[in-house]
């Protein structure tokens, strides 16, 4: 019994000695017992920064009461160091502003910070460095390696912003009316005067009809004979007279067609439209005349709806009525010949051919249509350049030329033309495209302003998704990219921890570039598919040899190093 009591007393004494001797040396030796872990490990780029969380626990009776430490995580990369912020801990009797660690119970700790990412950090290691003080003594503990490297997969993002093209207003079939011909008659007569057939307008109509016959793009739809009587005499008589004049005009035209051998003036196209007394023509002629009392007459027309009363009141102005009979009525006794026809525009095939070979021969809307049909980017650019050179060019030509340059990766030329388009008209497509050049130049905030201005289009929403990827908002990117199946939609879903949908998107994208194969390999790595990692990396390196070295240092493949031996 005495022997056991002796051993117990000895143990207590030894423990007291150990406790009493807790110092920087003992802290250094027991540093591994703190269970320090970094999260994530490896570190990851997230919105251009590398975030770090360090957790651990100071064991009971580890921290001397008068000691203090400064702990700082340091990322060592390519011969350089980037320090996270320092954090301070101290014993219960130490002087300072650090977090106090009770001696008997110890204390758990959680530390967070982030640093700006630089590409050379991809190959790096994370160390925890501790500097301790106790009284007059100081010591640097051996560095603890708590993490390896930085995964920079978000930087695989391509610049595949979706530009918005302006639409053409090309109308293939345009309807026109040739209204240049009029046949006049004498007072109270529907007899066609021979001299009328020789009038210049009638002769020119015949020649025009001949030219139409040789132009397959012109199709006559209707030939209308609209006839009138001057507003004098009995109304019923004038109505009959208008009918007869329409018939006379038709006969005159048929005689002309026969004489000139016009085969495109068939009677099935004819329509007779007698109008009776031409009060509207009378009003227009009065307004254009120099007749002294014209304003009085015009007021009579406006204030009197009864046609017979109108005529009587005008006759009462005896002097003026004589002038009307001489200068106004003769031009109203007529039959107008109206030829309604369609002008058929170029077919898409013709526009493609002409736009590819001789774009300057096309009109503005024809060029805008041709540009939308041509696939060759150089020819497409030539078409929109020709459109921009026309005097009636609007913002759409410059906007679309900017889109072509963007597809050719000529960002400076794209910016010039998009700036021009935006200055001409601020609208959804020009705002979206200004957002593209602004984002590519590195101004995400400014780009987002433009994309918000273009709100409503799927393109601007997708482009906002690219900014979300860059800012580390992966769920937001997935939402904004909608139904697009692209390299970047796949990347966004991968970063959002949705590996299977990411694979489905890249497979559906039709992207067979080297970088797309590299992304497929990353997806396989996250799915623990070693064979898939190897086959996709080999495809990627075959297309772009520089990806071989990248794969060797990429920690996405840290568990598949055997697949990176190219």
Task: Put the structure in a nutshell.
This protein is an alpha+beta fold.
Write the layout of secondary structure elements.
Layout lengths: L1 H19 L3 H6 L7 E3 L3 E4 L2 E10 L8 E11 L2 E4 L3 E4 L8 E2 L6 E10 L7 E11 L2 E4 L3 E5 L1 E2 L21 E12 L9 H4 L2 H14 L4 E12 L5 H25 L10 E8 L1 H10 L5 H10 L3 H10 L1 H10 L1 H4 L1 E11 L3 H10 L6 H10 L3 H12 L6 H13 L3 H14 L3 H13 L3 H10 L4 H14 L2 H8 L5 H9 L3 H10 L5 H13 L3 H14 L2 H8 L13
Parallel strand pairs: 2-12, 6-7, 14-15
Antiparallel strand pairs: 1-3, 2-3, 3-8, 4-5, 4-6, 4-9, 9-10, 9-11, 13-16, 14-16
Average residue pLDDT? 92
Number of helices: 24
Low-confidence stretches: 1-20
Largest sheet: 7 strands, mixed
| Strand percent estimate | 15-25%
Which structural class do you get from the secondary structure elements? alpha+beta
- At the fourth level of CATH, the homologous superfamily of the domain at 173-344 is OmpA-like domain
Could you tell me the CATH topology label of the domain at 173-344: 60s Ribosomal Protein L30, Chain: A
Q: Estimate percent helicity.
A: 40-55%
Write down the overall geometry.
elongated
Query: Do you know the CATH architecture of the domain at 173-344?
Result: 2-Layer Sandwich
Provide the gyration radius in Å. 45 Å
Cα separation of the termini: 73 Å
E-strand count: 16
CATH classification, class level of the domain at 173-344: Alpha Beta
Quaternary class? single chain
């Amino acid at each position: 019994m005495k022997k056991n009591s002796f051993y117990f007393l000895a143990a207590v004494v030894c423990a007291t000695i150990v406790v009493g001797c807790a110092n920087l040396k003992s802290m250094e030796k027991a540093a591994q017992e703190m269970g320090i872990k970094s999260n994530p490990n490896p570190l990851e780029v997230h919105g251009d920064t590398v975030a770090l969380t360090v957790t651990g626990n100071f064991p009971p009776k580890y921290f001397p009461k008068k000691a203090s430490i400064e702990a700082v995580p340091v990322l060592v990369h390519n011969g350089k160091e980037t320090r996270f912020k320092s954090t301070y801990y101290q014993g219960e009797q130490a002087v300072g502003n650090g977090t106090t660690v009770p001696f008997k119970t110890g204390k758990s700790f959680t530390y967070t910070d982030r640093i700006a990412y630089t590409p050379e950090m991809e190959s790096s290691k994370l160390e925890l460095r501790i500097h301790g003080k106790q009284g007059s003594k100081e010591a640097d503990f051996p560095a603890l390696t708590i993490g390896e490297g930085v995964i920079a997969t978000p930087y695989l993002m391509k610049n595949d912003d979706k530009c918005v093209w302006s639409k053409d207003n090309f109308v293939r079939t345009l309807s026109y009316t040739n209204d240049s011909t009029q046949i006049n008659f004498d007072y109270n007569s529907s007899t066609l005067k021979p001299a009328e057939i020789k009038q210049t307008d009638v002769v020119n109509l015949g020649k025009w009809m001949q030219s139409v016959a040789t132009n397959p793009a012109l199709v006559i739809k209707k030939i209308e004979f609209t006839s009138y009587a001057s507003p004098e005499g009995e109304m019923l008589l004038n109505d009959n007279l208008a009918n007869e004049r329409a018939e006379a005009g038709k006969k005159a035209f048929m005689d002309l067609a026969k004489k000139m051998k016009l085969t495109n003036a068939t009677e099935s196209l004819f329509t007779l439209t007698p109008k009776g007394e031409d009060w509207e023509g009378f009003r227009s002629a009065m307004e254009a005349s120099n007749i002294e009392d014209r304003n009085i007459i015009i007021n009579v027309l406006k204030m009197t709806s009864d046609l017979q009363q109108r005529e009587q009141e005008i006759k009462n102005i005896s002097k003026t009525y004589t002038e009307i009979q001489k200068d106004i009525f003769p031009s109203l006794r007529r039959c107008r010949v109206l030829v309604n026809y369609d002008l058929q525009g170029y077919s898409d095939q013709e526009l493609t051919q002409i736009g590819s070979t001789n774009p300057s021969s096309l009109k503005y809307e024809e060029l805008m249509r041709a540009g939308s049909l041509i696939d060759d980017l150089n020819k497409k650019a030539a078409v929109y350049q020709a459109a921009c050179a026309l005097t009636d060019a609007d913002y759409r030509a410059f906007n679309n030329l900017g889109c072509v340059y963007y597809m050719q990766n000529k960002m400076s030329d794209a910016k010039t033309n998009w700036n021009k388009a935006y200055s001409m008209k601020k609208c959804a497509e020009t705002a979206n495209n200004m957002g593209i050049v602004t984002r590519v130049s590195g101004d995400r905030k400014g780009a987002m302003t433009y994309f918000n201005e273009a709100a409503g289009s799927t393109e601007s929403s997708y482009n906002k998704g690219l900014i979300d990827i860059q800012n580390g908002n992966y769920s937001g990117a997935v939402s904004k990219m909608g139904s697009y199946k692209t390299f970047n939609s796949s990347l966004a879903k991968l970063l959002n921890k949705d590996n299977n949908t990411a694979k489905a998107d890249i497979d559906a994208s039709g992207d067979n570039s080297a970088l797309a194969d590299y992304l497929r390999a990353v997806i396989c790595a996250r799915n623990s598919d070693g064979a898939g990692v190897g086959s996709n990396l080999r495809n990627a390196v075959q297309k772009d040899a520089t990806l071989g070295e990248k794969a060797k240092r990429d920690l996405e493949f840290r568990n598949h190093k055997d697949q990176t031996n190219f």
